[in-house]
# Entry
Amino acid sequence: MNKTLLKKYARLVVEKGANVQKGQGVVIYAAVDQQDFVCSLAQQCYKAGAKWVDVDWSCQELEKIIYRGETITQLCKVPQWRREKHQVIVDELPATIFILSEDPDGLAGVNKEKLQKATVARKKVRKIYMDQYDGKQQWVIAAVPSPKWAKKVFPELKKSEAVNKLWDAILQTVRVNKDNDPIAEWDAHNKNLKARYQKLNSMKLDKLVFNSSNGTDFTVGMNPDFLWMGGEETTQSGVAYNPNMPSEEIFTTPMKGCAEGTVVSTMPLSYRGQLIENFSVTFKDGKAVDVKAEKGEDILRDMIASDETAGYLGEVALIPKTSPIKETGILFYETLFDENASCHLALGAGFNNVIPGYEKLSLEECVAKGVNDSIIHVDFMIGSEDMNITGYDKDGKEFKIFENGNWSF
Amino acid sequence: MNKTLLKKYARLVVEKGANVQKGQGVVIYAAVDQQDFVCSLAQQCYKAGAKWVDVDWSCQELEKIIYRGETITQLCKVPQWRREKHQVIVDELPATIFILSEDPDGLAGVNKEKLQKATVARKKVRKIYMDQYDGKQQWVIAAVPSPKWAKKVFPELKKSEAVNKLWDAILQTVRVNKDNDPIAEWDAHNKNLKARYQKLNSMKLDKLVFNSSNGTDFTVGMNPDFLWMGGEETTQSGVAYNPNMPSEEIFTTPMKGCAEGTVVSTMPLSYRGQLIENFSVTFKDGKAVDVKAEKGEDILRDMIASDETAGYLGEVALIPKTSPIKETGILFYETLFDENASCHLALGAGFNNVIPGYEKLSLEECVAKGVNDSIIHVDFMIGSEDMNITGYDKDGKEFKIFENGNWSF
# Structure
């Protein structure tokens, strides 16, 4: 990949994504085969005045060997040094940068019980710390291609061609090209998203009804006071950042306990390195009570059993079929992209920061207001070509939100 | 590199080097661009019954960026999670595998004060833990080529050719080829080294005198009770392991405070990613009192000032000019190899395990017997074509040890 473009992208992630502050630490999570981009990120972090940069390397191939080689008991242990690494985030509130590049089904074939139990054990530990720094520090998720991921997306191409083509697609969706100023582009994009969510906030919606010819027939309850959000967010101390790059969604947290009917997936879901395809989820009293899937049904069942609240919804997100990600025509097999191509829901934890004044509330108070709390948060896509979405406020007043897959307003 | 050979090498490192025991943990230290070999090692570890494998990844290019981007104060901080990672070794005594692959002068250009102070600060912390696990767990250092290291060794070749040629050289020196059983070869090799050091032990040497036409004129005191060692070592709990692959040296710890005269280097020394070339060290009362170098004299001066005892000797090692490493005719710019091509000394810490019954001695008692203690241990090469070494016991009895660069017996 062209070095100038790579640098432009790294700068965008550091300045507009994480918005690294002078004197702040930075933790970068990345795969071992991404050293060039990680080095470029680190340089941009120091340029932005970072006090320190720590890179937490991962290797999916090694992870697979570890899953195969260790017992469940061993895999569920979280060593003290790993806890101390989480504690650094609580204590110092560094910006965190997550670089995705992994093969979407790179952990296929790993014993599912091991994978599920180890994932739950680690997430439980991580949550102890996350609950303490959530909303207080900037974070961003962005992606770079690995050869295996690129081959998954473009199986007909040679490895190097596939990688180049995935680079092109990623840079296009994050608004980086050789002629533009991506930071200015993101400012304009954030402004557009803001106008959209402000309109939704003014409706004070009490519920949303989803209908599509593919079988989706679904109603989800809303808390009229919860805020819709999109694009740029702000930490409690007032630092703006863009948590997802790309990001096209307008989203909020639905009301826990209010979801009825069935939603049909419109894209495959990659969960912990394994694919779930052609599935549907049926809700009753807000909870997933039945799931069906042509592929990976057991993974889906295990996922919603991760803890007692994993079957409740944590997110409703609206994306029109004219989304630039949708328009690439590419199935990325990666939620960061695919969620921005299609309306979606998330199973698991909701976002507390949709509650005005959430900073002063305890976790329990947020839950009492209707935000689900769980160790998982997994997006799955339900947007379709003919999706209609209608909103209602407490008085039954109707608002057309989506018609035939696009915004009504 | 041929996959079968790679696997054979990984198995040698795990079984004969670290000798990973059933139920034992393993820590692997390796660079991010060595994931294939690391994965192969991890597989061999689990095959040997490892309970867990943790890989501590490093990236020299990133390290350089970090050195440039951070203040000395920040660089000298050792976070709690890093201490906890050292503590794991104290608590669980895993086998440790160090995989070298870095560019020998990959940190050239980094501010020397930063490098020196940060190195000392980290080594001081590490030493707190090392002193607790030293002699109790198996460890091994082995190497794999990185493109930059390979280009340093074979500057005239294309990158891929250089890597292949360095692979060939490494595999040759560690006795791995497509037709042999490297484990059987190492058993035979260890037997030969043992016969050699047993002969030296029987001499009960009090001092060694080194002379060479290049200007080396040097006498070092010995403790007649200290043991000469070579090849395989044994943990306090009786597990055999081979700490260096390759290894051709017969070595011991000299008597602290007894070294007079000048030694002239015969090979460049790569220290912390920087090269020191054509240098000499003059000793008085056991301590380096003067150094001269055509290149890197300041690095050498800083090195012997790392702590109060860094200027004292910690090792004397004897290697004939017919060593297989010498016979490759290759200058590896890497101590693991180059030290096995030539007689050498080490500045800094000595080995306590040369004292019979050292397990029952405190660190202070070992120092009192003549073993230097320091945060550094740096080998430098002094063997030459016409090196003569003569030993003397307490009664002045003379033993010819080396004549014209080769063993006299």
